[in-house]
Amino acid sequence: MKIVPASDSSVLVEFGDKIAPEFQNGVLSLFHGLRALADPRIRNLHPAYVSLLVDFDPLTLTHEEVTALVESLLGNELPASADSPAEVAIPVCYDAELGPDLADVAAHTGLSTDEVIRLHSSASYRVSFLGFTGGFAYLGGMPEILHTPRLGTPRRAVPAGSVGIAGGQTGIYPAETPGGWRLIGRTPLRMFDPRSEPPTRVQTGDLVRFVPIDHTEFERLHREQP
Amino acid sequence: MTIRVVKPGLLTTVQDRGRYGYAHLGISPCGAADAMSLRIANLLVGNEEYAGALEMTLLGATLEFEEKAIVAITGASCECKAGSNRIAANAPVEMATGSVLQCGSTTDGARCYLAIQGGVDVTAVMGSCSTDLRGRFGGHEGRRLQAGDVLHVGQPGRARQRRLRVDVRDGVRGAGAIRVTSGAQRDWFSSDTYAKFLATGYVVSEQSDRAGLRLKGDAVETRESKQLLTDGIPLGAIQVPQDGQPIILFVDQQTTGGYPKIANVVAADMHRVGQLRPRDEVRFAEISIPEATDALQAQERWLVELWQD
């Protein structure tokens, strides 16, 4: 573990240099520990695969004080809630129209499109963290055979709800943004609603499963969204 | 009290201090690109310093005041008129009932700010009225202003208008290189590369926005061939993608990313980044973290000492 200054207002706490459960647990435990302090001088926490960025008010806290605070929380146990993560089922329509890169993923992996769908929807994924844009979940646990590089040129606009693959990662775009992930399907669910509490459908640590649905069901669920 | 948008300008949004405490959900801070000008504008009209105000980009808006109002314009210079009368910047000004404020193009920076006594009254989302353009929430209907929009103004508090005793323009604009501290992945770059990065003049690309300022210049070479595991991005981080053209990640930035960060703009110069225009040249100078903190404290003292009373 090392703590490095990332800016005059933040430190980066690095637990390791590869994705591994012990490093991810270190990130989560420190994240929950700092959240529980509810210290207004700490402005933002950015958890990631193996690191936590702590952003603070440099007029009221110093790097030394933040480092001491971080060190005092290291080794804390994960909260009990982390041992029994919520399981969230996300319906996904894997039609070619909604997943325009499904055929490319099949070609790259040497699988049929049906096999890609079956494998993608049979795994259980852990939400490593939320980042990039509001409600974007980085999911760990995709079967290795599905690994496919991202697009050479990102799309200017990826529709909200799109489910994509980038290397060994899979995730859902919560809003229309530019993006370079290979799109294999789309969920009709709203993944991010700024007026809800919490505003994101999945939280860090949750277990996510994808449930294949047909186009009729996609349309029906889509109409029901707020 | 309402204000009608006659012409929205190029990119006009409601902004305040920004939205903090939600980065772990992927939510950017947003907020005023030049927070110092936002604060001065609000203080001039007697608002709380981070009250919601309008941020106008490159070309200002035309606004009709349905009742009289006290306003102040700060930030980049921009010719503003009410009918044929020129409206002074950096001072509280009364707009008469039915008057129309026309803000022109900014000349020496990218953004100007219009504060209205009482503050722009929009529903706060996650504790802030700043517009999140990418997430499409906050501000006025989660988007840039359009012709025909009607903005509501809050009740003015008991605070009174204030006047500046110095010309703030030079203090706000600053001079010389943008100051940086070394970034979290500084050791991914050789000392020679880092020295070259600090010696190079970069040009702000047209493809820049509130999420990031893309710079053009001599490519910065990464020593490491390994890929960075996605990590958190501090405000003002200067990341170097594969093509070696640096990007300053700014207020609407993504909260995490996968490119190494060579340096980071200091908090005291963040507002200067908010005034960079496409085609401006920018250079960076490294200072230590204690120097950066001193600069920020000095700036806060300067902000307190600006006022006539």
Description of the structure:
The complex is a heterodimer of chains A (226) and B (309). Chain A is α+β, with helices and mostly antiparallel strands and 226 residues long. Chain A folds into two domains: 2-83, Gyrase A, domain 2; 87-224, Beta Barrel (Cyclophilin). Chain A has five helices and 13 strands. The radius of gyration of chain A is 19 Å and the shape is elongated. Chain B has 309 residues and is of the alpha+beta class. Chain B has two domains: 2-172, no CATH class; 174-304, Cyclophilin. In chain B, a hairpin with a 7-residue loop joins strand 13 (202-204) and strand 14 (212-216). Chain B starts with a strand and ends in a 5-residue tail after the last helix. The chains are: A alpha+beta (226), B alpha+beta (309). At the A-B interface, strand 1, strand 2, strand 3 and strand 4 of A face strand 15, strand 18, strand 19 and helix 5 of B.
Largest sheet of chain A: 4 strands, antiparallel
User: In what range is the share of β-strand residues of chain A?
Assistant: 25-35%
Question: Rough shape of chain B?
Answer: globular
CATH superfamily of the largest domain in chain A: Cyclophilin-like
Number of domains of chain B: 2
CA-to-CA gap between the ends of chain B?
Answer: 29 Å
Strands across the major sheet of chain A, in which order?
A: 1-2-4-3
Largest interface comes to: A-B, 49 and 46 residues
- The proportion of residues forming helix of chain B, as a percent range, comes to 10-25%
Q: What is the N-to-C succession of helices and strands of chain A?
A: EEHEEHEHHEEEEEEEEH
Mean pLDDT figure of chain A = 93
Q: Count the helices of chain B. How many? A: 5
CA(first)-CA(last) distance of chain A: 43 Å
Short descriptors:
heterodimer, A: 226 residues, alpha+beta, Gyrase A, domain 2, Cyclophilin, 2 domains, four-stranded antiparallel beta sheet, four-stranded mixed beta sheet, 5 helices, 13 strands, elongated, B: 309 residues, six-stranded antiparallel beta sheet, 15% helix, 28% strand
